[in-house]
């Protein structure tokens, strides 16, 4: 089989991004595999070929006596993981037959970014692949506010034929339908019939699901440890379901068999909880949920209506990642979290406008008053990522200084203000810093040069809309280890010669984002494409006339995954996409051969 690799004697079939692959190609590859392993038995090979042809044409396996031998010959018993991410040409029904025939021992299936495959694939897989543990069927989504459905349970796309398979996927524990905003409550009913042992669920962005539908579904999950439902209608009823509290009986026909007895009190063992943007949930419900979930390690409450009273309800001590972006928390609630969660790796308090400089005194006082067991917080702190905004000042930063020794990622956004004195000595305060992002910061050019001269360990740098007078010298002092560079505004002076200098000093760059370089010409685009062929992310906005000659020179960048060219010249040729597709196909054929 093409594109396979072996890990611990188990084979992984990776076809991610192969947009030309079809089920016909998969069956053809399977035949080639069989031809190599049939010991030159022409008769057997012809029978296998006829059987596969019958599957592909008629969509079913014939009832011939050689079926058992057929399945024995075609099974790729060592293939336990398959990645079909972005393979949007795969037909669902024929794909399921191929999986049944080729991979009966499949455990991990990734069909993310495949909009043509839907929830009905679960009962279809059940018929032949009974060992699937992980199914990723997510789609790309933009995390923005969405319009949520009403609490009326929707039924109109429910397919009763999907329930004709008996049994359930007892091995399936990890399920992701993130971004599938067409998912309905009726689909959840289907999931309750086949997925009884789920522990990890991701329904992020599924805006058509109602709180009532989610609550009934979650009430049937007994061993939930990871729940990700950002930007959904997750609310009070769903909270009660997670905690096993009683709920009113539902009269909807679809859920008529789900009665109050389905709800029972149980211990909440959640380790990951993502409720970002769930505007349907009230403050009391959030408090109740995190109060009953002391084992949480990853908690995302961004863009919710909560304050310190919610944080004070949390009694856990195992938090690794905490997102409180755009909430109403203050220094008091954050101090409580920092006091009891000494292994916190990532803290996002960007947009928390109620945080003041008093945080410095509060946290310092908290550290001083800790008992002997906790007094070593400064020495044992593992905070690695910090994102801050409104109210974050020098006093705040210095108060946190004892806990920032291991900080690797530091992001300052709108509303924060760090003095140049602190920025110039950032390399001493944060010796392990690798990722620095400054957005809407007022900095002098000399301070910026000092910061970069001493920050040679930086791998990722973002300077976005900063009030700073950058000069050509910044290119000479930029850390040579940079892999990602984002410069927005303040670099209008950049020329083709500066791009060539940047290229010569930063060979390892794989991500580049430039905005407002008005003096650049097509020469710069050619320089970028020839010198950074390993580039995976490229964004050029308002960059002079870079695309005046089209973008054909970018075809040599075989690793490119994300490309944005906006207002940077006359634009791309009309056949750019077609030519790019030819290049991609040719590259895939070379890899296969």
Q: Which tags fit this structure?
A:
single chain; alpha/beta; Leucine-rich repeat, LRR (right-handed beta-alpha superhelix); flat; disordered C terminus; F-box/LRR-repeat protein 15-like leucin rich repeat domain-containing protein; FBXL15_LRR; Leu-rich_rpt_Cys-con_subtyp
Q: Kindly provide the radius of gyration, computed on alpha-carbon positions and rounded to a whole number of angstroms.
A: 28 Å
Strand tally, please? 20
Q: Outline, from the CA principal axes?
A: flat
**What are the segments in which pLDDT stays under 50 over at least 5 consecutive residues?**
62-66, 150-166, 253-264, 366-379, 589-593
Biggest sheet character: 20 strands, mixed
Q: What's the CATH architecture name of the domain at 307-367 and 378-472?
A: Alpha-Beta Horseshoe
Class inferred from helices and paired strands: alpha/beta
What is the CATH class of the domain at 307-367 and 378-472? Alpha Beta
Strand content: 5-15%
Give the CATH topology of the domain at 307-367 and 378-472. Leucine-rich repeat, LRR (right-handed beta-alpha superhelix)
Question: Helix content range of the residues, please?
Answer: 25-40%
Calculate the terminal CA-CA distance, rounded to whole Å.
11 Å
Average of per-residue pLDDT values: 80
What is the name of the CATH superfamily of the domain at 307-367 and 378-472? Ribonuclease Inhibitor
Please work out how many helical segments DSSP would assign.
21
Organism: Ceratopteris richardii
Protein name: F-box/LRR-repeat protein 15-like leucin rich repeat domain-containing protein
Domain F-box/LRR-repeat protein 15-like leucin rich repeat: 183-357
Pfam families: DUF7885 (PF25372)
């Amino acid at each position: 089989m093409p594109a396979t690799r072996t890990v611990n004697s188990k084979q992984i079939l990776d076809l991610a991004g192969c947009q030309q692959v079809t089920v016909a190609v998969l069956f053809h590859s399977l035949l080639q595999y069989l031809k190599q392993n049939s010991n030159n038995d022409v008769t057997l090979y012809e029978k296998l070929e006829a059987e596969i042809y019958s599957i592909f044409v008629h969509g079913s396996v014939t009832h011939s006596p050689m079926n058992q031998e057929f399945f024995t010959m075609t099974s790729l018993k060592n293939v336990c993981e398959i990645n079909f991410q972005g393979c949007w040409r795969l037909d669902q029904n024929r794909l399921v037959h191929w999986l049944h025939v080729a991979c009966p021992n499949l455990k991990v299936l990734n069909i993310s970014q495949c909009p043509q495959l839907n929830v009905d694939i679960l009962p279809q897989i059940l018929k032949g692949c009974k060992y699937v543990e992980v199914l990723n069927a997510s789609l790309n989504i933009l995390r923005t506010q969405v319009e949520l459905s009403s609490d009326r349970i929707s039924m109109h796309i429910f397919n009763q034929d999907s329930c004709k398979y008996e049994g359930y996927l007892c091995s399936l524990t990890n399920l992701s339908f993130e971004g599938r905003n067409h998912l309905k409550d009726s689909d959840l009913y289907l999931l309750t019939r086949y997925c009884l042992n789920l522990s990890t669920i991701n329904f992020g962005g599924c805006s058509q699901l109602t709180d009532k539908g989610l609550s009934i579904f979650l009430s049937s999950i007994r061993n939930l440890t990871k729940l990700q439902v950002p930007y959904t209608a997750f609310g009070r009823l769903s909270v009660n379901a997670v905690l096993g509290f009683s709920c009113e009986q539902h009269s909807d026909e679809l859920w008529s068999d789900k009665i109050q007895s389905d709800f029972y009190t149980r211990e909440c063992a959640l380790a990951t909880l993502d409720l970002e943007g769930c505007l349907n949930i009230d403050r009391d419900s959030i408090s109740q949920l995190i109060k009953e979930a002391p084992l949480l390690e990853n908690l995302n409450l961004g863009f919710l209506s909560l304050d310190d009273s919610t944080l004070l309800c949390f009694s856990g001590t195992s938090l690794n990642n905490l997102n409180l972006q755009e909430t109403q928390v203050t220094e008091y609630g954050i101090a409580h979290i920092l006091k009891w969660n000494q292994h916190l790796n990532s803290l996002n308090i960007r947009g928390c406008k109620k945080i003041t400089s008093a945080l410095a005194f509060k946290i310092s006082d908290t550290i001083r008053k800790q008992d002997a067991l906790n007094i070593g917080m400064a020495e044992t702190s593992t905070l690695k990522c910090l994102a801050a905004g409104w109210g974050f000042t020098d006093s705040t930063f210095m108060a946190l200084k004892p806990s920032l020794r291991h900080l690797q990622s530091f992001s300052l956004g709108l509303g924060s203000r760090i003095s140049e004195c602190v920025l110039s000595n950032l390399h001493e305060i944060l010796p392990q810093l690798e990722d620095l992002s400054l957005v809407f910061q007022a900095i002098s050019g000399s301070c910026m040069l000092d910061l970069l001269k001493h920050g040679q360990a930086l791998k990722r740098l973002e300077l976005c809309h900063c009030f700073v007078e950058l000069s050509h010298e910044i290119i000479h002092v930029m850390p040579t280890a940079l892999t990602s560079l984002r410069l927005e505004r303040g670099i209008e002076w950049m020329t083709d010669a500066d791009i060539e200098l940047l290229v010569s000093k930063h060979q390892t760059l794989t991500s580049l984002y430039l905005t407002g370089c008005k003096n650049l010409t097509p020469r710069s685009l050619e320089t970028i494409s020839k010198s950074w062929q390993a580039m995976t992310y490229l964004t050029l906005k308002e960059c002079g006339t870079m695309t005046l000659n089209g973008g054909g020179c970018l075809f040599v960048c075989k690793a490119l995954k994300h490309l944005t060219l906006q207002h940077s010249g006359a634009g791309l040729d009309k056949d750019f996409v077609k030519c790019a597709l030819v290049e991609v196909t040719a590259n895939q054929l070379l890899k296969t051969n």
